[in-house]
Amino acid sequence: xxxxxxEKKGQQAWITLNRPESKNxxxxxxxxxxxxxxxxxxxxxxxxxxxxxAAGEEDFCCGGDLGEVIPLxxxxxxxxxxxxxxxxxxxTIPDRIMLKGEPLYKxxxxxxxxxALGGGTELLxxxxxxxxxxHAEFALPxxxxxxxxxxxxxxxxxxxxxxxxxxxxxxxxxxxxxAEALAMGLVSEVxxxxxxxxRAQYYADNICRQAPLALQxxxxxxxxxxxxxxxxxxxxxxEQAAAVMMSADAREGxxxxxxxxxxxxxxx
Length: 268
What we know:
2-enoyl-CoA Hydratase, Chain A, domain 1, alpha/beta, six-stranded mixed sheet, 2 domains
């Protein structure tokens, strides 16, 4: 059974963390398979949006399966399969699963079906639209264990949330509820579990109706200019806008509006 399931549905890619019996924690196989999934959707021009979710009804992801990966990394145990061998051979994989090494400019929707602890909360910070089930919880408990949330949270969280909210999560180690996460701005929406997949589908379908080059330019600009001086950021923004304006999609949009029909965007 694959630790990560990648399913392509037309212009959508659905990535499912698939270890519900282990709280969807990321073991060696999951590290490699998730890195491969991100690489595949990045390279597939037909994919316009990614939905990230998890199997089961209790846990989205409770972090890394340290009982498996730490002994592997420290040499206490030897790799048991080709995927674990790849994890040892490629030091970029931990950054790639968190979309740190190479950004993904396609929109990513997270459907959070339960607890997101440690690396689970860190992984969510690499997504764009986040829908949480009502019973979901979020926490970075690493300081309680003498370590730090070093998979992106110490950089991303204070840029995504107001300082006091971010530091409450980073320093306190205590979980926040879905309702609290919504009030902080950590998630976009909270829904009953039974409605979670449908809401994620709604957002994915809506994104697929937009012009893909425009969406990628918007996300690229938001990510790349976040720490730029304003003048440099506005210059970058205009470069992205100009590139999109030269596309066939930019001509198709106004044409479809005049003809009173839905636009047929091709990503070119």
